[in-house]
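Worked example 4.2. Below are the chains of a multi-component assembly; read each line carefully before continuing.
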Amino acid sequence: KQEVTQIPAALSVPEGENLVLNCSFTDSAIYNLQWFRQDPGKGLTSLLLIQSSQREQTSGRLNASLDKSSGRSTLYIAASQPGDSATYLCAVYGSGNTGKLIFGQGTTLQVKP
Amino acid sequence: EAGVAQSPRYKIIEKRQSVAFWCNPISGHATLYWYQQILGQGPKLLIQFQNNGVVDDSQLPKDRFSAERLKGVDSTLKIQPAKLEDSAVYLCASSPSPASGEQYFGPGTRLTVT
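Applying the procedure described above to all two chains together yields the following structure tokens:
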């Protein structure tokens, strides 16, 4: 059974700091991995989608990497800003193209001005 | 392109009452998902539809939860009777197909059961 774990559960950093959020999964046979952002009281916004054949994806100040063999993904945020404060969720698509997403519990980030 | 729509956004009910949530997916998306997100946890899949057929409802508490997607477009999720532990955000998502590898989420419905 696939399990997804995110560490740390919460993180507080000063503005301008570079930071890394971690995601690990128990079954390396994944289809894709997706990072989401969730603001309080809101739905999920997709940040980056990494296909199983890819090693990383970049969008602006965000960079996500994927190491299937070790069951790990990281989300790197450069030069953090107060507007980055949110909960970040990692989710994996199981193999077999079923479309089923399995989520981690999220990392709540606070960036202090 | 319009996103996934959900209503209501908020709902407060007493335990043992019933409640229904509505979702309208992105136009042309054949696959629709309902997730339950309890405070402090990641979303958990309740049910997945492909057009109007159920693909996966293994984690749906079928004694009290039901869902339908009669015409392969809109979907409703119902809880009857509600329990305190059903307090959560209910998220709807859609994708063109299971193999597309990316889901688009609606804003969610926050349910509080008192």
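Take a moment to check your reading of the output against the notes. The radius of gyration of chain B is 13 Å. Chain B has a mean pLDDT of 93.
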